[in-house]
Amino acid sequence: MSILAEDHLSSDHDRRPGLSASDVMELMPQKYPFRYVDAIREIDESHVVAQYTFKDDEWFYKGHFPDGAVTPGVILLEAMAQVGLVLQGLYLLGLHLTFEQIKRYRAVFTEAQAEWLEPVRPGETVVITSQLKAWRHQRIRAVVRMVDSQERIVAVAQIAGKGIEWPNASS
After folding, report:
1. pTM for the complete prediction?
2. Where in the sequence numbering do the catalytic residues fall?
3. Cα 90 from Cα 63, distance rounded (Å)
4. 49-84 confidence digits (pLDDT tens)
5. Who has the most CB within 10 Å: 71, 86, 149, 159?
């Protein structure tokens, strides 16, 4: 069963199975200015669809490149990892742990094979779709695709990471 972002399930954070899209967004440890997810459109045990709009005043545009800003590939990869590793991992942890226990985990990015196909300019909204390939012992692998508002494929990647308990994480 897929949970759509507009679904409003019980507000009890410790219920199982699964977390709502808003629960997952609340648990996401990345914050401004390093959060590249505005909304989750869909999330379930096998996939995530999310979106982000690259604002005109993002911190990295001043230097990349001042005469014709373009989003750095490493930022696109980070956005893809936040969807395919962080959001998916949080959802999967929610199938087995309480909301408070999940707060102690962080996804550590371990591997990527990526290809960038189109530039992403300031003001562009992208949709990031991740398909889970493997989840075992809190290790995650996913294939992630990013498309722009014209539905052109901007980037594709196979990414991997691991969920670890984080020292000093709020619980």
Report:
1. 0.89
2. 64
3. 33
4. 999 999 999 999 999 988 999 999 999 999 999 999
5. 86
